[in-house]
Amino acid sequence: MARATLRERVRYWFDNTMSKGTAALIGWLALVSAVLILVVSGFALWLTPAEVKDGLPGAMWAALMRTLSPGKIASDGGTAPYLALMLVASLGGIFIVSILVSLLSTGLKEKIEDLRKGRSRIIEAGHTVILGWSDQIFTIVGELVKANASQRGSIIAILADRDKLTMEDEIRSRLGDTGRTRLVCRTGRPTEPADLALMNLQDASSVVVLSPQGEDPDAHVIKTLLALAKRAGAHPPTVAAIADSANMAAARLAGGPKVHLVDSDDTAARLIVQSSRQSGMSVVCMDLLNFDDGEIYLRADPSLATRTYGESLAAFKGATVIGLRKSGTVTLNPPMDTPIGTADEIIVIAQDDSMIRLAGSAAKVDATAIVTADRAESQPERTLILGWNSRARKIVRYLDGYVAPGSVLDIAADHPDAGADLPGLRHLTVNAKDCDTTDRYALESLSIGLYQHVIVLSDDRYAAHHADTRTLMTLLQLRDMQTALGERYSIVSEMHEESNRALAEVTEADDIVISDTVIGLLLAQLAENQHLADVFGYLFDSRGSEIYPRPAGDYLKPGVPVGFATVIESARRRGETAIGYRLASGVNHPPHFGVTLNPDKSQSITLRPHDSVIVLAER
């Protein structure tokens, strides 16, 4: 190949210089201006020395003024050569000023575009960082705004591969005013270390990693956890949601010890099963997970060290005791004779941490209103699952652990995998039937009145919105059939989008589990209070005590006004912890659907036969 010529080398150097951006272009423009001024000044001194004042400096000043302000030539006078030279300077000035304005405008536009993209580094401290984007982000941001409502200067920083202004507009349109909490959005890929550097992670209070929408979301989460683990500097506590339980081990290895993982499918499956067993379970869990009303706190109070767990249940006026943390191990509803040590922490539900204070005196207990009812022996049951999806096998296996031997589970769905791969069930006999769950005649052929519980699952072969639409059609058919035939069975439905809850409430389903909302609430809680991970893990585990809404008649004489302290005492005698109640008259009234948690212990309540007492108890 021939060697490059001098002309080619100069042009290559010039191209490289021009590619350096606006600053380089302005530099070249300044050089051209200086050459023009020097040339015009030199000719003016040579051709018209009598009309030039103060020699070369005066000539250069005159040329500079005509270059920067071409209109100044209109007031000039002198010989033709002098005016011609000033005209050349003015014409050159028009060219130079025009290019300068264009360069400044283009450079400013590029800078605004860069700012719009959100590529500047965040200079904050104590902020919560959210990595990724999904529908859960609206739940998480909304809950964090509530949690920080009383704090000034709270900041939520979001990094996602989306346009900065689009993210801000979507959050603003869904959540409205965020009060004292400021949102900072940045455009970037959470899996890229260079983009993570924008978020000032070493000074963050916590990090939330979201699963993106689309195929194989866990791969994206695991890659993000790897990028977080490999970065230098401090590593704040991190929470992340994993969709497939099979990926939990890989995610733990990628994230390290400071990452708390939420198994989305497992948590949703457990909640669906528990809700199918006890009406109102999902409402209770939602109330515990959100920041609207009662929240869970851990408090150490040495003054309780001389008491047992049972004696501490009525110790607080504005808080409800639900468990203990001893030597780092959480137990909800431990044995009533469990002694409280000086280093032990009490787990309570309270409206605010300021409400966690010991009562001056014990609330009055009406022993005459307490009844003793033997717990009924569990009997074989018939349960119907309508629809099928990827978490259905977990639901069946968890259900098998709850029901009595001899129970029957029928699965009606047109999904090709419905009822397949379910070996090793101990208590359930499973039958699968092909059925279009949105077809009225197909549903009537199932004789649904024979079942005690019906679970409607969202079909994951369809997009979330379409799947929810099909679920709504099934719920409407079931409700109409119940009304027409006078049948009664519990209905628990799974849905994807929180926006469809209001529509589903028309169907009067006993429980509606919005799995994405539940996981979003759980992530928000753990982002604010990482120490509650063990509490919620225990709460959603089938081992140990769980939440049960049980008939009020098992605890109190129906229709007798009592304080909630009497309910607590009645439950304590049964080895249970009462945390609230549910009124049958409010089961169809959002947002709490008749559920009241952590009521005032001295406030009088009257529970009827169809009302429930919400307790933590062994199965």
From TrEMBL:
UniProt-annotated location(s): Endomembrane system
InterPro entries: CASTOR/POLLUX/SYM8-like, CASTOR/POLLUX/SYM8_dom, NAD(P)-bd_dom_sf
GO CC, alphabetical: endomembrane system
GO biological process: monoatomic ion transmembrane transport
SUPFAM superfamilies hit by this protein: NAD(P)-binding Rossmann-fold domains
PANTHER family cross-referenced by the UniProt entry: ION CHANNEL POLLUX-RELATED
Span of domain CASTOR/POLLUX/SYM8 ion channel conserved: 266-361
UniProt organism field: Acrocarpospora macrocephala
Name of protein: Lipoprotein
